Amino acid sequence: MTDDTYTPPKVWTWDAESGGKFASTNRPIAGAIHDKELPVGKHPFQLYSLATPNGVKVTVMFEELLEAGHDAEYDAWLIDIGEGDQFGSGFTEINPNSKIPALLDRSRETPVRVFESGSILMHLAERYGAFLPASGAARTEVLNWLFWQMGSAPYLGGGFGHFYHYAPEKWEYPINRFAMETKRQLDVLDRQLATREHIAGDAYSIADIAIWPWYGNLALGRQYGDAGTFLDVESYENVQRWAKAIDARAAVQRGRMVNRSFGEPETQLHERHSAADFETQTQDKIGKSG
Known about the structure:
The structure is a single chain. By secondary structure, the protein is of the alpha+beta class. It contains eleven helices and four strands. The chain has a four-stranded mixed beta sheet, covered by helices on one side. A hairpin with a 6-residue loop joins strand 3 (102-105) and strand 4 (112-115). The longest helix has 31 residues, at 136-166. It is globular. The relative contact order is 0.13. The model has no long low-confidence stretch (mean pLDDT 94).
């Protein structure tokens, strides 16, 4: 091991930012740090998010529901985590954990707050009876994989993604540790997909919707710079087949654009209030009209 040895103090204290991208968003305390009300649109669902993998899960779910003919119109508002929007008083009232995505369901008499992306997926699936079997072994299998993703992704994002791509310095030990775990997870998926069209069986479900933004995008070379080459993602042939099939879905393509504030201007739809916004409100269109 070539890394410098760190001797932890007896009691840890927060006296400096950790460095790297998004360092200013990390802190050891919870709660609002400034007053800021959230905007509210006209639709039953108010989503406050950003097009990170966890945010994409929910916007894809909404677009899939709409594609399937459900009355699931929503307003999607951009939360700029670099500017600390997630620490505003309005946001923390919906999600006290200050993480995107956060949803306010106003479709019933009493509004319901829903936070954690897996919880939002389940809430919407049960609300519309879609992308989640109602009962039995098939339902349990979908939930197995939904919770697998929720438990596994921190190793991919906070572990591998952080130390390989975002950390201010490259250290061999954590990169090797989390690269090994990420490849193990890819192998889990590859073996599962060897005999199934989708993650939990033949039917497309919230398991696919949860897992694809993380592992599908990684397999397609869209995560953490050149991580796809480093991890040899092309060797996971079943994951590749699945990732490309999900990527081709129209609802997935739309969902990836919502609350996106990075990448090519034509892929960025900062806010989404109607289906027409995909044709008129992307950043390339706004730039031309301005």
